[in-house]
């Protein structure tokens, strides 16, 4: 705010981000500089954020997913993220299953933000994930998860839910902690990685 528009990353913010993400000081500084170049105001808009995703997935359509990710980090819903929120977003959306990542995944799936996940919400996010997989690669997915509907069903069944049930945050986090398959199904993963993981399982 106010006169804090200096070119360098403040020491406090740098320490904070080093502590809360896996990124090094050098990486953070480099990203900060390119962030400021792209977003001189110090805030990234939803459209710019979607543009970054689009450049990562040239053969698919990541717009819906990027929109959901953005929504889950734009907590005051003003349509922008600052550098800190942006870096935390990059950190939490990378795969893994620390508690914070799973809590974030819950907020991604809780599309209307009412504190529980419905089956419709699972389908909406899974559909967005599917749009990031090139059509050619979708053909290589296992038979029982090669459409958004099948994949949502599979997740729903893992949680032993009836059609109109809801999943609460604690239950969601515990379920994903306890079951590698759920983790794989709820997050975006490159199709090749999915194949490798399934292979590992069979051996
Ligand atoms: Ca909800």
Automatic annotation (TrEMBL):
Domain EF-hand, first and last residues per copy: 61-96, 97-132
Domain of life of the source: Eukaryota
PROSITE patterns to which the protein is assigned, alphabetical: EF_HAND_1, EF_HAND_2
GO MF annotations, alphabetized: calcium ion binding
CDD domains: EFh (cd00051)
GO BP annotations listed: visual perception
InterPro entries hit by this protein: EF-hand-dom_pair, EF_Hand_1_Ca_BS, EF_hand_dom, Recoverin
Keywords tagged on the record: Calcium, Lipoprotein, Metal-binding, Myristate, Repeat, Sensory transduction, Vision
Family: Belongs to the recoverin family.
Described function: May be involved in the calcium-dependent regulation of rhodopsin phosphorylation. Binds three calcium ions.
Official protein name in the record: Recoverin a
Organism whose genome encodes this protein: Chanos chanos
């Amino acid at each position: 705010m106010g006169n804090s528009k200096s070119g360098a990353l403040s020491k406090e913010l740098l320490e904070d981000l080093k502590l809360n993400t896996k990124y090094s000081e050098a990486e953070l500084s480099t990203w900060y500089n390119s962030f400021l170049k792209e977003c001189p105001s110090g805030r990234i808009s939803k459209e710019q954020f979607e543009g970054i995703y689009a450049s990562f997935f040239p053969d698919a359509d990541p717009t819906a997913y990027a929109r959901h990710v953005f929504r889950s980090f734009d907590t005051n819903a003003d349509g922008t993220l600052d550098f800190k929120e942006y870096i935390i977003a990059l950190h939490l959306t990378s795969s893994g299953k620390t508690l914070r990542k799973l809590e974030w995944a819950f907020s991604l799936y809780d599309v209307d933000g009412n504190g529980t996940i419905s089956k419709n919400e699972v389908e909406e996010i899974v559909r967005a994930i599917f749009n990031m997989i090139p059509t050619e690669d979708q053909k290589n997915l296992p038979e029982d998860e090669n459409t958004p509907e099948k994949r949502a069903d599979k997740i729903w069944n893992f949680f032993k839910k009836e059609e109109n049930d809801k999943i609460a945050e604690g239950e969601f986090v515990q379920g994903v902690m306890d079951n590698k398959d759920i983790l794989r199904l709820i997050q975006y993963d490159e199709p090749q990685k999915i194949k490798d993981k399934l292979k590992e399982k069979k051996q």
